[in-house]
Amino acid sequence: MKQRRRTLVVLICAGSALLLGGCVGDSHDGKNIAAGTTATFALLETTDLHTNVLSYDYFKLADDRSFGFERVATLISTARAEFPNTMMIDDGDTIQGTALADYQALIDPIGCNETLAMYKVMNKIGYDAGAIGNHEFNYGLPFLNQVTGSRFNIDGLDDPAKQKACAGPDFPLVLANVRSVKTGAPLFQPYTIVTKTLTATDPNGKTVSVPIKVGVIGFAPPAIMSWDKRWLDGVVYTVGVKEAAEQYIPEMRSKGADLVVIASHGGLDASPYSPTMENGSYHLAQVAGVDAMMIGHSHQVFPNASSTVAQFNLDGVDKVNGTVFGVPTVMANYWGKHLGVIKFELTHNGKSWEVDKSKTVVEARSIQNADKSYVAADASISAAIATEHQATIDYVKTPIGSTDFEMTTYFADVGEPGAIQLVNQAQADYVSRYVQANLPQYANTPVLSVSAPFKSGFGGGSDYTDVAAGSVAINNAADLYLYPNTIYAVLVTGDEIKAWLETAAKRFNQIDPASTVTQELVSTFPGYNFDMFTDGDVSYEIDVTQPVGSRIGNLMYKGVAMDGSQSFIVATNNYRASGGGNFPGLDGSKTILAAPDANRDVLIQYIKDHQGITRASNGSSRSWTFSKVSTAGTVTFKSSQGKLALAAAAGLNNVSLVQDDDGSGKGLSVYAIDLSL
Asked: How confident is the model at residue 485, as a pLDDT?
């Protein structure tokens, strides 16, 4: 009876996956491998690096050892010394996310013959494959085409034969579910198959070099079509990740792949499958032939036995051993905080490689040691990008104004508007001027603005906006507005504003006022979706004792109840206006202004124009408060350590310190809020 060939499929959902760069060994041609030959083979993953090449915070102009590719590079070296055979794969969201990335893309764009700093160090380390995430599209398709060394066949670019070959990564990038409107073909190659040479042991105990063919296929979140609509609409389109996997995996097998790696830049979502769902990896794991997944996008750690994250506590998900429906799966956090490892024990049966599933080990290795210290940085990484790093520092230190108070988001969750009001003012000013000059039909429509605390402690005590009193530089503006979004404005009604705020109020857990146990105020709903007004003309209450959808009360405009049918223009960003965050009614259809200008650049210009920023004028207008309620127990929230005085300075007299160190090792304190005051 003819033996069927077994194919291992590794999913890497990162928008685009790369394949191995190794060469075939000469000892065997793959057809003459002795039955019983064994090998250990480890897949290594980084994901969501976001151009955090160094352990350095360009917003604070200070070292931060808690993240950085230069430290995960040390883990890579350790793993390569530990395992005889490895394959290094990146899962996307690689080229955007820091001031260094913005500098090379927007401020002093690199030339065709130059390699992005992030790709430069990845080339140095020696990646075998890489995936494309959603943030790869943030700077537009021409830029992505250039820096990846591609020749996209899309409208708006020259015919590929006429395009100049530009520098890019030394490893292949793959992406199966984003396609050209012009041709119907995938934007990148959907997958690649590379032959790696394994150091193995034959049945007689002799060390031999034998080949293995590894296929890598990549996927990006289909939601890119909303998030980066301004770049992608009418130029590319997406297909469902499940459909693309079912199309290409059999093809990869037919071309001889022994192992197939799917790189999926997406997390786990057990909702009914949809071709447009953001996090499709749960469904990819159920595609026939999938044997391993590398996932990303969610900025989480998997496996993690103690994780309380909802996506890792689903049916079919083993958060202890790192499997999804039995498929070995790893997610290596973000910003170079972890290295993902999937170790396989392989045996050749004389015709194909087989995996001993009982010996597969999945782990996410942290750059932080057990004693809370951090692994040493690989010194060659900083040396490789010293010029780019210094140029970025020089750029972000450019002064643009001053402030008489410390602008922070440490207490934004409980109402402090100090780092948000200035953003709202800049956005509203820009949109108002644009409407008056270009949209006379809306000349009498009120213009409002919403923004959110983009840095609200997700990454620990240092993950907050903090602009010191005194001189304000470009790096401070980048701290106030983290993302490279662009200004959008939507036309909505009062009722739609209320629905918008109800969604934003998901930021809070429902509090039971009769409960005597301590209750945590803030939920897992992302801080960057906690949109708020900071406008003297708007006021409202958030009643956290009520369920989601019934929390916004006393919504007023200019002192009277907001008319549900009245029209308003709300300044926001392309992400929110185009559907990001799943806010009701915000799907792109209400956009009346899609500006080319970045929110951050608008903020920088506003500070330049006004120079002196003051708390009285730019940091004290609080549109919302919590509905007053007495609670039998303590209501707590977390923020950075040693910041209570800032709450008092902002007039938050109902905040107190409960515990200086929450025990997480992340630099957080536990604070209490008295909701009756």
From this structure: 86
Is the pLDDT at 7 greater than 70? The verdict is no
Structure tokens at 647: 């709450």
Strand partners, 561: 556
Q: Which ranges in the chain are annotated with CATH 3.60.21.10?
A: 8-389
Find out whether 331 and 267 touch, Cβ atoms under 8 Å.
yes
- Cα separation of 242 and 239, whole Å? 9
At residue 308's C-alpha, the angle toward residues 307 and 312, to 5°, is 70
Fold of 398-509+527-621: 5'-nucleotidase;  domain 2 (3.90.780)
Please list, in sequence order, all residues whose beta carbon lies within 8 angstroms of the beta carbon of residue 447, skipping any fewer than 6 positions away: 428, 431, 432, 435, 489, 568, 569, 570, 571
Question: pLDDT digit string (tens) for 227-236?
Answer: 888 899 999 9
State the sign of the Cα–Cα–Cα–Cα dihedral 494, 500, 502, 508. negative
Q: pTM, whole model, 2 decimals? A: 0.79
**Residue in the block written with tokens 């250039």:** 146
Instruction: Name the band, by pLDDT with cuts 50, 70 and 90, for residue 20.
Output: very low
Which tens digits make up the pLDDT trace of 494-504?
999 999 999 99
**14 has which bridge partners?**
none
Query: Percentage of residues in the chain with pLDDT exceeding 70?
Result: 95
Measured between alpha carbons, how far is 357 from 221 in angstroms, rounded to an integer? 29
Q: What are phi and psi of 556, to 5 degrees?
A: -120, 150
CATH topology of domain 8-389: Purple Acid Phosphatase; chain A, domain 2 (3.60.21)
pLDDT tier, 310 (very low <50, low <70, confident <90, very high otherwise) = confident
Question: How far, in whole angstroms, is CA 326 from its chain's centroid?
Answer: 26
* HEC assignment per residue over 351-394: CCEEECHHHCEEEEEECECCCCCECCCCHHHHHHCHHHHHHHHH
Residue 221 burial (10 A CB sphere; 0-12, 13-18, 19+): buried
CB atoms within 10 A of CB 275: 14
